[in-house]
């Protein structure tokens, strides 16, 4: 028996990242909204609280612009500015993170491969096509179109059903502790947390594995196998969760 029967990945900031000229995008948003520019992108990002709200991306980003406008003493419509930002952003401008293609290839060698993203298909589809993921994975679940998103179990259950595998035999790779690791735990999948920095700690969360690069996924999938790809002794060895690093 294989250590993992299937591997699935989060999309944004796990497999890929935006590939925009951020400064140009920021200026274009102000131009689109007819507002004299103020501040810099580096000032805006820390003012955005938590991950984007899939149901209200404009409101989420607008709250950041409202805080930034207050800091610069500007009287603007932050929602209009946020809407302009969304309008000029090109969702197809994405690039694979280092090690992503190697991780996908290693996952395909281990079994079926899936992608589970919290975004809706009408926004995420452009990224999937730009990355050519249709030809590399066996199933894609857009949790943004479901009644419940990560960290609820439902999207993960849809994923394992689409891949025709059991949850406990599936590894889910993601960068978010509160969405990816928590969601995988809630649905019975095993998790690999892709942390942004070696200094990051999982806190109260308990990912089964911690990786600092997607390049480590191939070794993780091969770990414990003999030369023939089976667990030592020809049987499936019990897999104990690794201690979080």
Folded structure, characterized:
Residues 222-245 are annotated as: Disordered. Belongs to the HAD-like hydrolase superfamily. Its cofactor is Mg(2+). One of its GO terms (molecular function) is hydrolase activity. This is Haloacid dehalogenase. This protein is an alpha/beta fold and 245 residues long. The chain has 2 domains: 6-17 and 94-234, Rossmann fold, CATH 3.40.50.1000; 21-88, no CATH class. It has 9 helices and 8 strands. Strands 5-4-1-6-7-8 form a 6-stranded parallel sheet. The protein has a two-stranded antiparallel ribbon with strand order 2-3. Strand 6, helix 8 (177-187) and strand 7 (190-194) form a beta-alpha-beta unit. Helix 5 packs parallel to helix 9. It is elongated, with a radius of gyration of 20 Å. Mean pLDDT is 89; it is low at 224-245.
Largest sheet: 6 strands, parallel
- Average pLDDT over all residues: 89
Number of DSSP helices?
9
> Low-confidence parts, pLDDT < 50 over ≥5 residues?
224-245
| Estimated helix fraction | 25-40%
Count of spatially separate domains: 2
Brief account:
Keywords: Hydrolase, Magnesium. The chain has nine helices and eight strands.
Essential attributes:
2 domains; HAD-SF_hydro_IA; hydrolase activity; Haloacid dehalogenase; two-stranded antiparallel sheet; single chain; magnesium; 6-stranded parallel beta sheet; 9 helices; 245 residues; Rossmann fold; hydrolase; alpha/beta
Reconstruct the topology from this structure:
Layout: E1 6-9, E2 16-18, H1 22-33, H2 41-44, H3 57-71, H4 78-88, E3 94-96, H5 100-110, E4 113-117, H6 121-131, E5 139-142, H7 153-163, E6 170-174, H8 177-187, E7 190-194, E8 209-211, H9 216-222
Parallel strand pairs: 1-4, 1-6, 4-5, 6-7, 7-8
Antiparallel strand pairs: 2-3
Helix pairs in contact: 1-4, 3-4, 5-9, 7-8
């Amino acid at each position: 028996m294989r250590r993992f029967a299937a591997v699935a990945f989060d999309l944004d900031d796990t497999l890929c990242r935006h590939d925009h000229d951020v400064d140009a995008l920021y200026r274009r948003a102000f131009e689109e909204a007819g507002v004299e520019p103020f501040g810099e992108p580096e000032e805006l990002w820390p003012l955005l609280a938590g991950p984007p709200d899939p149901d209200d991306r404009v409101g989420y980003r607008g709250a950041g612009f409202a805080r930034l406008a207050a800091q610069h003493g500007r009287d603007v419509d932050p929602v209009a500015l946020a809407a302009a930002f969304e309008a000029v952003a090109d969702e197809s401008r994405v690039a694979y993170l280092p090690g992503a293609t190697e991780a996908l290839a290693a996952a395909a060698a281990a079994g079926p491969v899936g992608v589970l993203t919290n975004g809706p298909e009408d926004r995420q589809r452009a990224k999937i096509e730009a990355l050519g993921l249709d030809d590399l994975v066996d199933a894609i679940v857009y949790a943004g179109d479901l009644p419940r998103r990560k960290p609820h179990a439902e999207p993960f259950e849809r994923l394992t059903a689409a891949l025709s595998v059991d949850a406990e035999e599936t590894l889910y790779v993601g960068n978010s502790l509160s969405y990816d690791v928590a969601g995988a735990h809630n649905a019975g999948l095993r998790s690999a947390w892709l942390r942004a920095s070696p200094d990051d700690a999982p806190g109260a969360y308990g990912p089964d594995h911690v990786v600092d690069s997607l390049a480590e996924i191939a070794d993780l999938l091969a770990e414990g196998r003999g030369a023939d790809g089976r667990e030592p002794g020809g049987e499936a060895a019990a897999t104990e969760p690794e201690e979080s690093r």
